[in-house]
């Protein structure tokens, strides 16, 4: 189906669905959610229900052809951010189709080296976060230093006339192969007496540079990298014997710093307990470092430290995996200013070689029970279909890590608050902000966000790297949050957390998206008479300024990162009461506005601030501030009957919490104008 045909189909689908859903007791379907479901039906045409498999299990092959709900929603919103002037259904479907095809290589020939096919039959690992495919390297003619290749050695050969070893590499997701110049620190592993690096051996590598076809051989090759990990399979006799013979004689308690300084080398075998950043002190403060906490079979712990460019190696490791370190460098923890219970630390030395038995994520069966009514796609229509009293149940397999947490990042359906349980990771929520406030802490930046959807509400703990970075956010705003995790506290309460710098984390405020007003596929126009004080959604309305003599305009300083007013403290400093921090160097002059708007059905007062207020007044805060007082008073009258398309949210709905900061004193106005766009009166 062409994109034009798909866009026409969506227009028909969207119009009919609105009418049909309006007639039900369920109320109106959110246009954004409706488009996500429609996009799922386009990307997964075999999934006729658009939300279930009719009681069938979703096997791993089926999952590959079905993008997760969270992935689709996030991709749509990221496209809206990229196309700030507005998107069409065709643009969104094109972006989704291209991104999904590139990620899963639908267009690539289904042929790969036979040795890779044989290994693929028993391949059960999940991809590492930074993994790229060999096909994508060829297609883009580029690879970043932090990218990871999970490769299989297809061939080993020596360049004619040299003693340079080359590895031909394939992977489980590509039809192409690529050659790698082997780093000389691994030459001894190709020796027939060792033959550890051989055809069929899996390796992880990172820190690669690509020599393009223009620079040499006529086709791309990877230049040597030190950052390579050899994959072992302890179910294979040869690998099990290698582990037992080489790595099980030494333990952490047998490691001696003095012996190491006398030239004694060690080979150690341990489980990776954690991977994280390491705070640098003193002369090391400008050096990037990471620490990998290792636990041996005697439950002894040592830190394996990575310095500078070596931190790339952390991209190849995963918590729960078993790591074998051959000839690690032994150093004193006092010499490198590391806080640890042990006197020694391990480092990646010039002779160190790493082997890994990756942790295989077990799959957890998650059961999905359908509700009493379910939205189904039928051709170009959306209808509500009553199901039989006996609920249908489907199940989907999701990866489970070494701590028992289930990864929901590829979950094919939308997650609701009522679905949340202990030990969930990578899930997303779409809902309405009900409360937001800062937790006072001297060392961490933490905010608590209340969010609700149609199933319930919950408080999420947001962790920021240095400061609030989400712009203006208030109760009533519609938000999409991905990369969430949940666990049960000591008080047996379910806690939801979000970390700003965690892979897969995103936070998007739909109510403030510039593209929303011009994207008819993601909203439908409402009349002011349709607004409900009990509503929890973002309305898009076409309005005119009416009786602007009743408007109230004020200018003041606001904290640039959150848009909230900055108040002068008794000490003379500016402080943001929302972020609870000093903000003298981070303030901008901004407008705060209360103004009446009307259409042919009703008239309301709305309030707004910042860029939205500037758009409605057609003047910047600095320009308005420079006007004489009498001109400031008269200025709004020039805007009488100006027409706007606006986004409206109910900011004072009953139940909203203490995080609701009113920007205008004694503000009794419920409706916040989150976005506005001036339009032609005749448009």
TrEMBL record:
<protein>
    <recommendedName>
        <fullName>Nucleic acid-binding proteins superfamily</fullName>
    </recommendedName>
</protein>
<dbReference type="Pfam" id="PF17245">
    <property type="entry name" value="CDC24_OB2"/>
</dbReference>
<feature type="domain" description="Cell division control protein 24 OB">
    <location>
        <begin position="168"/>
        <end position="297"/>
    </location>
</feature>
<dbReference type="InterPro" id="IPR035203">
    <property type="entry name" value="Cdc24_OB3"/>
</dbReference>
<dbReference type="InterPro" id="IPR012340">
    <property type="entry name" value="NA-bd_OB-fold"/>
</dbReference>
<feature type="domain" description="Cell division control protein 24 OB">
    <location>
        <begin position="419"/>
        <end position="639"/>
    </location>
</feature>
<dbReference type="Pfam" id="PF17244">
    <property type="entry name" value="CDC24_OB3"/>
</dbReference>
<dbReference type="InterPro" id="IPR035201">
    <property type="entry name" value="Cdc24_OB1"/>
</dbReference>
<dbReference type="Pfam" id="PF17246">
    <property type="entry name" value="CDC24_OB1"/>
</dbReference>
<feature type="region of interest" description="Disordered">
    <location>
        <begin position="43"/>
        <end position="62"/>
    </location>
</feature>
<feature type="domain" description="Cell division control protein 24 OB">
    <location>
        <begin position="32"/>
        <end position="163"/>
    </location>
</feature>
<dbReference type="InterPro" id="IPR035200">
    <property type="entry name" value="Cdc24_OB2"/>
</dbReference>
